[in-house]
Design a protein that fits this description.
The complex is a heterodimer of chains A (44) and B (326). By secondary structure, chain A is α+β, with helices and mostly antiparallel strands. In chain A, 27% of the residues lie in helices and 11% in strands. Chain B is an alpha+beta fold. The chains are: A alpha+beta (44), B alpha+beta (326).
Chain lengths: 44, 326
């Protein structure tokens, strides 16, 4: 079987009004990498 | 493609997403808000979100603003379905078309297809092949070699919970993306021919100045490509080696607008799950809702340093090849 990791677009805000950004959705400097891990927030 | 007789959208399909309660349309654009009201949604301006009850069902229609952290935080206590119109075409016709298409989308069926696909992709280790042939004899034959360990972006259950923020595109496709420029083929490798019925251009909110110029050029290019019934993309080892329409070569044009440094390495493999929308699609529009209505699409560029361009195959079949013997 192929191992799958399913991600979804839910861009979480915690109780302190912080974006939960564990995947570096908005912070990585590498554009392709950023697009791949943060497509969820805009889903292009 | 002949567009089917215009069905009248209702809120029925959205009940899979928001089972109970009013459905609010929050928008930064009055025209879109008014149109949403005519469909039975409750319009609230983006600058009036304090009026929303806690836990409200919200469709966020962004026509004049790109997605941002600030906008995301406005909906932290609500159930939000986000439609980033501004990332595609902000013109009136395209925006109203997008609204109509999101109301015609069968969210429950799309989520069901996504679940089936994730099971099939997990169970089958061989290559995934898409095939189709149009009336003019142009044939798609796309062989997708998938990595053993895959990350897939997908929405597997239609309902949005309080605090969740779901982008409309997530309902309409399974998306696989290249891990990085150092590893273009780490998720998938594409070989063969794609015959696309339509193309899309998208802008990421983090675009830079050079990307802006390329995205504007890409929009003009897309308008030209929309004049053709078919766009043929030839791929070798994950890279487009030829992009033509009616014999005219667009390979370098697409390379330039998607960032020539990427040299047409495919960034995205998208498997459409919103197939029931296909009879209603008008490929002339640069609308995100067209993307998942086709069985498969290939994307180039990230939308930041250059345009993100998708080439969409409308109809086709697929199968998995037998796994290679170990």
């Amino acid at each position: 079987m192929r191992e799958l990791t399913i991600t979804n677009s839910s861009w979480t805000v915690d109780d302190d009004d912080n974006i939960v950004d564990a995947n570096g959705r908005m912070t990585t400097d590498q554009a392709v990498e950023a697009a791949g891990i943060s497509y969820g927030y805009a889903r292009l | 493609m002949q567009i089917s007789a215009q069905p009248q959208p209702s809120l029925d399909m959205l009940r899979a997403v928001f089972p109970v309660g009013d459905i609010f349309a929050v928008s930064d654009d009055g025209e879109l808000g008014k149109a949403a009201e005519e469909y039975g949604l409750v319009f609230v301006g983006l600058d009036e979100t304090e009026k929303l009850p806690v836990g409200a069902n919200v469709i966020v229609l962004l026509r004049r603003n790109l997605v941002s952290v600030q906008i995301r935080k406005l909906f932290r206590k609500h159930r939000a379905l986000v439609v980033p119109v501004a990332s595609f075409d902000t013109g009136s016709e395209a925006a109203l078309y997008t609204l109509r298409m999101l109301l015609l989308t069968d969210y429950a069926t799309a989520a069901g297809r996504a679940r089936e696909w994730t099971k099939d992709i997990s169970d089958n280790l061989g290559s995934l092949v898409f095939r189709s042939a149009d009336a003019d004899g142009h044939s798609t034959n796309l062989v997708c070699s998938l990595a053993q360990n895959l990350k897939i972006d997908a929405w597997l259950s239609p309902e949005i919970q309080v605090g969740q923020w779901a982008s409309i595109g997530a309902y309409c496709e399974l998306s696989l993306t290249a891990p990085s420029t150092q590893n273009w083929t780490g998720s998938f490798t594409l070989d063969g021919t794609v015959v696309a019925s339509g193309a899309l251009v998208a802008r990421d909110a983090r675009y830079n100045e050079l990307g802006d110029a390329r995205i504007r050029a890409a929009n003009e290019l897309r308008d030209e490509l929309a004049e053709y019934p078919a766009i043929t993309v030839e791929l070798e080892k994950g890279t487009a080696v030829s992009i033509t329409a009616d014999g005219k070569d667009y390979t370098d044009a697409v390379r330039q607008v998607t960032n020539p440094d990427y040299d047409l390495h495919a960034l995205e493999l998208g498997i459409g799950t919103n197939l029931t929308l296909l009879p209603h699609v008008d490929w002339r529009f640069n609308s995100q809702l067209n993307e998942g209505a086709g069985c498969v699409h290939i994307g180039f560029g990230e939308g930041m340093t250059g345009a993100h361009m998708d080439f969409i195959v409308a109809q086709g079949s697929h199968h998995f090849e037998p796994a290679a013997a170990s």
